[in-house]
Amino acid sequence: MIRYQLIRTCLIAVTWLLLPQAVVCAAEPRDAQRIADQIDSAIEHGLQQRKLTAVAISDDVEFLRRAYIDISGRIPTAQQATAFLENSDKNKRRELIDALLADKNFGEQLGRVWRDWIAPAELPSEGNGGNQPIKATRNLGIWFAEQFNANERWDKIVESVINVDGNLKDHPQGLFYSLVGTDTGIAEPAGATRAISSLFLGVDLQCAQCHDDPYREWKQTDFWGTAAFFRNMESKFNGRYFDSITESFGKKLGKGGKKTNTGDASPNGSISIPNDSFKNAGNIVPARLVLSDTINAQDNQALRPIFAKWLVSTENPYFARAFVNRLWSYYFARGLVMPIDDMRPSNAASHPEVLQLLTKEVIDSGFNVKHLVRCLVNTRAWQRTSVAKQDVEQRAAAAFGRRPVKLMSADQLYDSLKLALDDPKLDLRTYDPKESNRFGESSPIGDQDTEFQRLFETDENDSTNFTHGIPQFLALLNHPRVSSGGPMVERLIKDKTEPAVAVKTLYIGTLSRTPSDRESTEAVEYINSNADRRIGYAGVLWMLLNRSEFMLVR
Asked: What does the pLDDT average to over 377-382?
């Protein structure tokens, strides 16, 4: 058995390392533009092989809006848009990228992306949807944001998540195990295994929870050998709310503590397959690193640090590759490997040379997150237009020869609406939260951020999936805080802004561009047709906010 596992491990490792010869050559680390150029050479070579035609590079308006939404999580202000569009410097795109990466909004947006990748659509709760860790989940996103803005190394960020021990007040990342465990918020070895393998290894182990995966390389022992590293965790609750995570080593539970592996009498460093896994229930599986060796643990030895050290090691063939693929999927709307958590030898990357290049670059740069993002968004591939004039250009999107049209996430849309309406406290709820259960709602009405998230929730794994329907459209079409134009219209009235100037201001403050002559003429005529300019300005702004051009990232 040991000989078979050794041969299996070696064969898979060799398969992963002997990728096709790269079209591009190696480059000096941290030279983002050079890496970007190499990525483009590989992608263009791939387009030629597929007999596809790449579209043109986006114009300044399309680039500007995309850069702000993707990197900063919101549209630019009218002042920011005007400054960029009127700038004649040939390096202004690179300079804008650098400025956005240096701004705190970069970390906040990427922190929200990772928060959404981790948190389930419906947060753990007690009873009928009550007592959900909404604030703690936000704090998890804020914690990630702080790491990204400080340009902390990705391997150190992940190590901190895996090894977290203590209360949420001091360690917001401790919520990770509660979110990925069960719907009760109690940390579970199986939940941790599914999430960590998907998020940080880029592999899908969940089928192996109950049996050997018939379609992939993973065995049931791979799943439970990984789960064994997380069997000693103890979740503690402050009242009804999850409060902390710690290692318990089978000791007596503390006050409010809830054990992850109740009834498991196997020695430390192993785990018993539970009955709900059906096959091989009761078998004791020793802790083992994925496709690697088992470990020998002492009675009171903490196991998560052992796993974390292996997880973030540069010798781990999964970790850096998984990070590259996830970030690529965010900025390009699809991964180099799809699905993004199914990276295996039998599921090849669309551009293996790009994945190989960026994996090496991430390691050589010391897992520098901002550097990787800078490499991606400086490519011609990321800066291409979304407009396709021919079928051969339309089909080029899957090979990164055209920019797919994406839907703004709930966070991006909410922050953009706040800017467009000049209302930082924008509240689109339809009920007063103080009367949340007067009409028998199944769960309490949350604050304005929570309810906006629930209404405009998107598919975090596929940003090209248009999930909005009647409730979303009705909210933007009918809500008085949108139709009134908010403080933006009041400011135009107070400043006695002339209609032509107001129309230009509204266009560039929403769509990041000036209106065409026809658009300007029609809007001015509409404003002048109303005795009250407030109604006219509000109508133009309402029209702009309800256009697909506003809601979509092109």
From this structure: 98
